[in-house]
Design brief:
By secondary structure, this protein is mainly β. Helices cover 7% and strands 68% of the residues. The model has no long low-confidence stretch (mean pLDDT 88).
């Protein structure tokens, strides 16, 4: 069932794209180095330093946005291949949808026939969809929801994951003339194969008008949960971003 939903969503995105040609394209991306890799579901962490690479290629409505995550040792952590579409893009209200296949990597410590320890890199495969309505309250304040449903499609993967958030974005909070702060607090409920938890998370980003670098931090606090994990996690990251626009002739 989940496979059919995701395929239908992708088909809808590409049909809508074909009906509205756009001659302007963008290529943007970011690279981040962090002391603690935090997952798309912010209660889960790599538990050690990580490198994260984001890329976005598309036009004003449709984009392909892969995200590649590695440990600092170079071992893959997770690969997510997003297809995202801006279904509604009004002045005050936006509604975006997306779908992805993804791979999460896990290292298992085993012993060979001689009893010597060895590490084996395994993987779990998922397919997911996301739904993102957002309302712009003012120039620098917006409120919204985020809903993701994921289906594991390989042995050992979580069968069903439902992730629902209520969030607020407050941007351009002045620190100095050129430095500003952006905060993105959210409360969320997470259900994984029937086990449920309630959490608060916040992402803070410090930026300078004249620099392509930002400093960000994520904190996550568990209120109550049946899902194993830490009560509190946090990280700090140094990020570099670029954005180019191209015109098709």
């Amino acid at each position: 069932m989940m496979h059919k939903i995701a395929l239908l969503l992708l088909l809808t995105i590409f049909v809508a794209r074909a009906q509205k040609p756009d001659s302007t394209y963008h290529i943007s991306g970011a690279a981040s180095a962090t002391n603690n890799g935090i997952s798309l579901l912010p209660m889960f962490t790599l538990g050690k330093p990580a490198l994260i690479f984001d890329l976005s290629v598309g036009n004003s409505r449709l984009a392909f946005e892969p995200q590649l995550r590695f440990s600092m040792e170079g071992k893959p952590w997770s690969f997510i291949f997003w297809f995202r579409y801006k279904a509604i893009n009004k002045k005050k209200f936006r509604f975006n949808v997306g779908a992805h296949p993804s791979v999460a990597f896990r290292t298992s410590n085993l012993f060979d026939a001689q009893g010597n320890p060895k590490s084996i890199l395994g993987h779990q495969q998922y397919i997911a969809t996301e739904w993102i309505p957002t309302y712009q309250v003012s120039k620098n304040v917006s409120v919204g929801m985020y809903y993701l449903v994921s289906k594991g499609v390989s042995d050992g993967a979580t069968n069903w994951t439902n992730f629902l958030t209520l969030n607020t974005t407050i941007s351009n909070i002045p620190i100095t003339r050129d430095v500003s702060l952006r905060i993105y607090p959210q409360i969320y409920v997470l259900n994984m194969d029937g086990k449920q938890g309630y959490y608060f998370t916040d992402m803070l980003t410090l930026s300078h008008k004249k620099l392509p670098f930002t400093i960000s931090s994520i904190i996550n606090k568990r209120f109550s949960s049946e899902i194993p994990g830490d009560d509190f996690v946090w990280n700090i990251a140094l990020n570099y971003a670029f954005n180019k626009r191209l015109k098709r002739f």
